[in-house]
Amino acid sequence: MINVYVFGLALIIALLLTPLAKAIAQKYKIVDLPGERKIHANPISLTGGIAVYASFAVTLLLFLGFNHKSLAVLLVGLAFILFGFLDDMGIKMRARYKISAHLVFAFVFVWLSGFSFNFLHITLLNWLLTVGFITFMTNSINMLDGMDGLVSGIAFLAAGFFAILAFNSGQRDLLLISLVLMGALLGFLRYNFNPASIFLGETGSTFIGFMLAVMAIKIDIYGLWNVALSLGVERLQFISFIVPLIILGIPIFDTYFVFSNRFLHHLKFSQPGKDHSHHRIHLMGFSQKATVLTLYAIQCVLGAIALALVNADLMQFWALLTIVAIFFVSFTAFLLRVKVYS
């Protein structure tokens, strides 16, 4: 029953705080103006991430309390919020400086919380891999945020699949974190779905990317022990980490797709543009709403495959990975039909 209260409280707080955040943004002109690479035609508030974080923080502290892990999540999450707010205020920085700051925040989080991968015998290397993954996911989600309701809806669904995995593995704290994030995102999505009246801003997208990375790192999946043993893999996380990677497949695919195409066309990786997967679907004639709903559907399929993997035997494991690989290649070919570079 407590799980319902956790989700419901975060939802209600987000529903109440988001209009307040929108009003503050309008008063102080913290808005995203229309432009050549923008889809929206009117100035839109950029303070949605603050409402999401505040809803998340208040609910998490009420139900999880003060401990070093919850404080590490909230303090580093706040660092992402404050740093992203500089960009939302119009103080632009080079991509290398942003990534450097994100690396520092990720390292501080690993140091404070003790959360890290367990891939290798050397702790420092595990820390470096963890910091790199958090930074990668933070920026992947940030780059994906280019359409009304896209990131907030995808993250809501992804957090839902992490909640199912956490419930099945008995990870109470991770389940609470997932449910709190789901409630905060759903409350915000009420105002962010097309036509959006408020955006996440860099504050919200980087915070959400950070939280999804934390969930992916901390989820325990024991059902793949037999697969790991059959493949002669000593450490379970080498195999089990495939499950959260599939759940996070949309932002990971989008980052690979954009970066590989920009490399082939000799374009800067850091420059903004309408060459993301959602832009190409939109250019095929889909409306914004239809594009986002299509990606929601894909997220549900990927999540279902990830859940099916948890208790798969070796043959089922390879069959499901083959399906994901075929989808990966097919979706790449499908999107390449749309020409976006001159």
User: Can you give the helix content as a percent range?
Assistant: over 70%
Main β-sheet, in a few words?
Answer: 2 strands, antiparallel
User: Are there runs of 5+ residues with pLDDT below 50, and where?
Assistant: none
- Proportion of residues in β-strands: under 5%
Mean pLDDT: 91
Tell me the number of helical segments per DSSP (H or I, 4 or more residues long): 15
Tell me the series of helices and strands, N- to C-terminal: HEEHHHHHHHHHHHHHH
Radius of gyration over C-alpha positions, nearest whole angstrom: 19 Å
The total beta strand count reads: 2
Shape: globular
SS-derived structural category: mainly alpha
Number of self-contained structural domains: 1
Biggest sheet: strand arrangement: 1-2
**What is the first-to-last residue Cα distance?**
56 Å
Describe this entry's structure for a reader.
The protein is an all-alpha fold and 342 residues long. It has 15 helices and two strands. A two-stranded antiparallel sheet has the order 1-2. The longest helix is centred in the N-terminal third of the chain and has 26 residues.
SSE inventory with pairings:
Layout: H1 2-27, E1 31-32, E2 44-45, H2 48-64, H3 68-88, H4 95-113, H5 123-144, H6 150-169, H7 172-192, H8 201-218, H9 225-230, H10 236-240, H11 242-247, H12 249-264, H13 277-283, H14 288-310, H15 314-335
Antiparallel strand pairs: 1-2
Question: Which keywords apply here?
Answer:
mainly alpha, 2 strands, two-stranded antiparallel ribbon, about 350 residues, single chain
